[in-house]
Design a protein that fits this description.
Elements: H1 10-25, H2 36-40, E1 43-46, E2 49-53, H3 57-70, H4 78-83, H5 85-101
Antiparallel strand pairs: 1-2
Length: 106
C-alpha cells in the first residue's frame, strides 16, 4: 500500500486546505433528494427537501410550519412547541433546511 506524503511546509498545505474548504461549501447540505422511491420507502419530503424517515405527525407539522417561517410567513404553534419535542425538532429542522433552500429575498 502506497502512502501519499506531502511536505509539511505551509506553502503546500495551505492551498490544499483552502481547496478542501471550498469544495465542502459546494456540496449539498439538504440531504438525499426527494424521489418517488424515497417517498414510498417512508421518507418525509416537504417542498422538495427530504427530512428522512419520520412518521410522527407532530414532527411533520413542525417541519411544515418551520419551512413556512423560513419562506417569510411566520408560523409556529406555541402550545405544541412548549409541549412536544417532536414538533419543536421538526420546526427547527424545517426552518433551517428550508432557509438554505430558499433564495434570498430582496
Amino acid at each position: 500500500m502506497k502512502r501519499l506524503i506531502l511536505p509539511s511546509s505551509p506553502f503546500y498545505t495551505m492551498p490544499l486546505l483552502i481547496t478542501l474548504i471550498l469544495l465542502n461549501g459546494c456540496t449539498s447540505s439538504t440531504g438525499p433528494q426527494c424521489t418517488p422511491a424515497n417517498r414510498q420507502s417512508g421518507f418525509f419530503c416537504y417542498d422538495g427537501i427530504n427530512f428522512g424517515r419520520n412518521d410522527d405527525p407532530l414532527f411533520r407539522r413542525g417541519v411544515i410550519d418551520g419551512c413556512k417561517t423560513a419562506q417569510g410567513y411566520f408560523r409556529k404553534a406555541y402550545s405544541l412547541s412548549a409541549s412536544s419535542v417532536s414538533y419543536r425538532q421538526g420546526w427547527e429542522a424545517g426552518r433551517a433546511r428550508c432557509r438554505m433552500a430558499t433564495p434570498s429575498r430582496p
